[in-house]
Amino acid sequence: MSPRLIPITGQELVRLLEEEGFQVVRVRGSHVRLRHPDGRVTTVPVHPGETLRPGTLLAILKDVGWSKETYERKRLGSR
């Protein structure tokens, strides 16, 4: 596995999280707030055509309880 995360746009990440059971609970400007039935919550910035910065992506992964490996497995599986 490479040390760098696979790039993803905010919209793609929202779609991936929805596939995992997260639901959009609020949209305010360019920020989408998602909640999982088990209580996990995160906010994803959605700017058309722009990929998420690595630090932002890592913070979201921490919020949802995914490791880098879990993210990459789900990311590659959703293509």
Structure description:
- It is a single chain.
- The chain is an alpha+beta fold.
- The protein has one domain (10-77): Metal Transport, Frataxin, Chain A (2-Layer Sandwich).
- Helix content is 39%, strand content 20%.
- The chain is built from three helices and three strands.
- The chain has helices spanning 10-19, 54-64, 68-77; strands at 23-28, 31-35, 41-45.
- Strand 2 (31-35) and strand 3 (41-45) form a beta hairpin.
- The protein is globular and about 30 Å long.
- The two termini are 18 Å apart.
- The model has no long low-confidence stretch (mean pLDDT 93).
Assess the beta-strand content as a share of residues.
15-25%
Order of strands, widest sheet:
1-2-3
Major sheet: size, sense and barrel closure? 3 strands, antiparallel
**Mind telling me the CATH class?**
Alpha Beta
- Low-confidence regions: none
Question: What is the H/E string?
Answer: HEEEHH
Which topology does CATH recognise? Metal Transport, Frataxin, Chain A
Furnish the topology, listing elements before pairings.
Layout: H1 10-19, E1 23-28, E2 31-35, E3 41-45, H2 54-64, H3 68-77
Protein name: YcfA family protein
Organism: Thermus thermophilus
Family: Belongs to the HicA mRNA interferase family.
Task: Give a brief rundown of this model.
By secondary structure, the chain is of the alpha+beta class.
